[in-house]
Amino acid sequence: MSSATSTALFACSRCFSRHPFEELSPGEQLCKECRGSFPVVKCTYCRSEFQQTSKSNTSSICKKCEANVKAYGKPTACEYCNIIAAFIGNKCQRCANSERKYGSAVTCEQCKQRCAFDRHDDSKKVDGKLLCWLCTQSLKRALARTKQHLSSVDKHKHRSHKSKHNHKEKRKSDSMKGNGNDLSMGDAPLEKKSKLNPLQGELDPNSSDHVVAMTQLKETIASLQKKVQQKEMELLSKDKLITELKAQHHNDTTDLRIEMKNKERLNETKFSLMNSKIQNLLKEVATLSKSAKRNNKNIKSLTNDNSGSGTDSPSTN
User: Fold this and answer.
1) Which residue from 13, 53, 184, 273 lies 20 to 30 Å from 254 (Cα-Cα)?
2) Where is the composition biased (Polar residues) (predicted)?
3) What is the pLDDT of residues 68-88, one digit of tens each?
């Protein structure tokens, strides 16, 4: 029986060509040609997986987010999940729909952020935990990889056990011919290769996990840059307010000084006018007192004259 007929073949989920299970990618079940031509990537904004359709278009933004960017501009970070996918308002479409269906957000048991939504259905939980969408997807991928790795290890163990059994039968048959040692030396590399195959199948250079890490770093950098820009804008606005207040204070102080100088001049002029009026009034008082004294002297002299002339007049018999 040939090796092609004994080895089970599985179909690629895109081109439907049949390959051994170890040659297909974990999760997506794509062959090497489809993985290299049309890889499955994660959207930079909504973080959902999508298949690239052409080799010329290598954008990491899905069609829905691309249309939203054209319609609403670049998104901001969601106030719940912190994914940069809030095109309208402060919430992404996923969190807004979940909040409308299931109520307010609760704390995720994995990332400890308030971005999970309780569906009140234990079947929707992953491993019995209430997780947010990002943690759910990550845990599902990890469980799928672990399950696939265990299944591949079991298959290889079964194959190695079967091959050992076949080799034992061959060795029994060949020992009669004297060729048992050569066959056993030739079987050792095959067994080593079969033991190394599960690890080779697990390490996939075209996996999209590194894209997730890069996307997280990009989002962190973008959020930090936005925070820095906001802080710089706040500092600029505060500096502008400080300069405006300083200018206003300078203008107020100059106006007050000018007003005080004007009032001092006005007071000086008024003081000089009052002094001049007082001097004039004092002069008038002095002249009036002098004239009054003169009038009193004249009146006294006249009265004295009148009294003297009355006593000197002769008497008649």
Assistant:
1) 273
2) 298-317
3) 888 888 888 888 888 888 888
